[in-house]
Write a structure and sequence with these properties.
Oligomer: single chain
CATH superfamily: Spore Coat Polysaccharide Biosynthesis Protein SpsA, Chain A
Distance between the termini: 25 Å
Number of helices: 7
Strand order of the largest sheet: 5-4-1-6-10-7-11
Radius of gyration: 17 Å
Number of domains: 1
Structural class: alpha/beta
Strand content: 15-25%
Shape: globular
CATH class: Alpha Beta
CATH topology: Spore Coat Polysaccharide Biosynthesis Protein SpsA, Chain A
Number of strands: 11
Bound molecules: cytidine-5'-triphosphate, magnesium ion
Order of helices and strands: EEEHEHEHEHEEEEHHEH
Length: about 240
């Protein structure tokens, strides 16, 4: 039985990875010989504050998931089947959390290079403020544009690229998802749904290396990063 105040992670892996363009669903594509989802679960499992890890997987990926052979990982909970949109997958994961879980860290399986120390920092910030996300400064000037015309140039020092994990009080994220569903709103991250409640989301600066494997070149860059950082070949799985 999980203790009260438990912090659980949802590892979102129910997407297909259209932009990566491989036959395998993205979470099962190998990086340095091991599936992306394995890297992500391993990173989260080494975060002391995280007590439970709930994988959210595609409906047709159960046998692929089982074939990863993750049975020995003590924090791992049974996988939950996700939905058509990322937001649906978050909802499915939340619905499966044991009732005494009070904090949830939502993480993209595709951000498999996340630093465990950064995850700890964002959990601490969420516990202090109710909601927090990892984000990195942007290199380029950001333009907001519509129909080919610039609408706004926000000051670059105020612009951040949102990453995961994003950590919330479970009841807050539940409320945010319910409001979004009631209003037919689909966001591109979870913090946005909480912001729509009028709740401030605390920013924790993370590393640029916590990029999301999205395009084929991201995979090559991640392989190089692992080689340079001496992380190839260790860990579970
Ligand atoms: N995700 C999910 N359920 C969905 C869609 C996405 O759990 N219905 C997960 C993905 O598995 C991924 C994370 O959300 O780990 C971030 O999404 P993204 O990078 O867009 O992954 P995909 O949707 O798989 O990729 P693409 O958009 O290129 O198809
Ligand atoms: Mg997607």
């Amino acid at each position: 039985m999980l203790r009260a105040m438990t912090v659980a992670a949802l590892v979102l892996a129910a997407g297909r990875g259209e932009r990566l363009g491989q036959a395998l669903p993205k979470a099962y594509v190998p990086l340095a010989g091991r599936a992306l989802i394995l890297h992500s679960i391993e990173k989260l499992a080494s975060v002391p504050e995280l007590e439970a890890i709930v994988p959210v997987i595609g409906a047709s990926d159960r046998s692929r998931f089982d074939a990863l052979g993750l049975g020995a990982q003590p924090k791992l909970q049974p996988p939950v089947v996700g939905g058509a949109e990322r937001q649906d997958s978050v909802g499915a994961g939340l619905a499966a959390l044991p009732p005494d879980v009070q904090w949830v860290a939502v993480h993209d399986a595709a951000r498999c290079l996340v630093a465990p120390e950064a995850v700890s920092r964002v959990i601490a910030a969420a516990k202090a403020h109710g909601a927090a996300l990892l984000a990195a400064p942007v290199r380029d000037t950001i333009k907001r544009a519509r129909e080919g015309r610039v609408v706004e140039t926000p000051p670059r020092e105020e612009c951040l690229a949102a990453q995961t994990p994003q950590v919330f009080r479970v009841d807050l994220l539940r409320e945010a998802l319910a409001k979004a569903a009631a209003e037919g709103f689909t966001g591109t991250d979870d913090a946005q749904l909480v912001e729509r409640l009028g709740v401030a989301v605390h920013v924790v600066l993370g590393d640029a290396s916590n990029w999301k494997i999205t395009l084929p070149q991201d995979l090559a860059a991640a392989e190089a990063w692992l080689r340079e950082n001496g992380e190839e070949g260790d860990g579970i799985g």
